[in-house]
Write a structure and sequence with these properties.
The chain has three domains: 227 residues, ANL, N-terminal domain (Rossmann fold); 190 residues, Rossmann fold, CATH 3.40.50; 181 residues, 2-Layer Sandwich (GMP Synthetase, Chain A, domain 3). A hairpin with a 5-residue loop joins strand 22 and strand 23. It has 658 residues and is α/β, with parallel strands linked by helices. It holds the Pfam family AMP-binding_C_3.
Amino acid sequence: MQNAEAAQAGLQSIPALLARNAVRFGGRPAYREKEFGIWQSWTWAEAATEIRALALGFLVLGLNRGDRVAIVGRNRPAHYWAMVAAQMCGAVPVPLYQDAVAEEMAYVLHHCGARFVVCGDQEQVDKVLEVGERAPSVEHIVYTDKRGMRKYDHSHMNALADVQAEGRAAEQRLGAELDSRTAVLGYDDTCVMLYTSGTTGKPKGVVLSNRNIIETAKNSAAFDHLTEREEVLAYLPMAWVGDFIFSVGQAYWAGFTVNCPESAHTMMTDMREIGPTYFFAPPRVFEGQLTSVMIRMEDAGRLKRWLFRHFMAVARRVGPALLDGKPVGLLDRLHHALGNVLIYGPLKNTLGYSRIRVGYTAGEAIGPEIFDFYRSLGINLKQLYGQTEASVFITQQPDGQVRSDTVGVPSPGVELRIAPSGEVFYRSPGVFVEYYNNPESTASTKDAEGWVATGDAGFFEEGSGHLRIIDRAKDVGRMADGRMFAPKYVENKLKFYPNILEAVVFGAGRDMCTAFINIDLTAVGNWAERNNIAYASYQELAGHPQVYATIKEHVEAVNDSVARDPMLSGCQISRFLVLHKELDPDDGEMTRTRKVRRNIIAEKYADLIDALYDGRDTVSTRTEVTYEDGRKGEIRATLKIESARTFPTAQSQKVAAE
């Protein structure tokens, strides 16, 4: 359906798609939510009724056209309903990260000027009340979960269910007003405002129109043949653009079912019960699941470990070819089929991946070994490249053209070009309208012709036309001898190892590369227990000599691999240390989407970086940390600095031979 056809059909807003779905898919499930261990379901017709009642309730409370409605809480149907209900009233939904501390929340609430805040539970209400005068625009709080809320001052606070009840009672009085506001919503009206992760400064409010969301949802759904029969699991932060496009944009365009897990702790169990057919996860989710699988294999009996290793070797050799429909010998097919019965099938079922037809990963580059592991199991995992400013989709990998080292071809409707500097630029129907109240940043990011600077460095492969992203353009540099430096390339290789949770590589302008390593407490703790190694804290385990020895093996294996890359062979790690604490969003070291804030880390840990380069074997440091209740504390530690073996590059070997 072309733009003009969509406009003629009246499908110019999310509420218009809801009305269509209530008629076309009225009896099909639109939402499911697991609560108290039981799945509850709402059809599209029932969801439309619930959303209308909430929209009318907002009108009763005085919600005006153009008002901002902040939504903060876990993934729940009621919170998605609140976003659509706000749109029906002509207001703008602004989802927030539920794990944001009060200071972060205060900034977003004040910046967007939210009058209403929909909170998931008492914890979120408390954070909104705590910010108080720092968010003076907030006039009314609506909460979803009533537990613990009885003794609060309710003069400007209501339960969401009560707001809906007020809305149902006001149908005769306000129904025509709601219909009028919904009817005038246009393609270029604001659909949602989403805040960037803020890797280099304060988050920016990205304004996305109905055109941005609907056109992108339509094009991307056609690309992967999404229908009303898909099942998705809505578990990623509602403030993240990926969740909005999957759980609202595509869900409303295609009419498929959005399933909300009971909690983060039950997500894997809930996923097995649902069996999604369309699934998205950032690399850290796939990394965490692979770590869990490897830990379980280490604890398994000798026969099971042998079977796993044997059949995974078969899967790595022929699994991707079978997935892409390429020719595979009869003996290998039979061998793989046996592996599917004994290993791959049970493993996919355990992970909840048995029914996945299309899977995507994005947000950060995924390690090639991790990516290949899942595809070898027969899971159609692909990569996409996107941004909040693009309504997600910039490139996607078509079926049959999936590789770990590219992010695919331009998504439908997207144009790409590479600047002489190597930076990637794009334009598409999904390109954002503006950064809210920030014309300078808007002008520096999007030019008059609609081209957007991604901030990423990349190039097109000859022949295939696939895009390869090297790193963030600002992070790609040169070492002292002129060799290219791209830290993310090495970091992703390191994070393939289950023992390594996070890595930060340094080397721009230096004569060698060094690294900070975060161990994965689950994986390394499991190893310590198996080997009867006692430890009292993350810090103690991170500094254990055997842990250092294991990490050194991983670093040297990565160096061996990096040495074979003619472009990035200079990025081998010469010295490293294992950090005494995990990098934490609450300490400002990472974003809420778990992207490393390199400038903050470089400033905060300058003493450790200096020690990596001045030849010291140990370094003593103090680090301020933030506890879960918001209190500040300090960690003191003496860290060991370890040297790692580096390897001759292919080019240097050739020169030596000559």
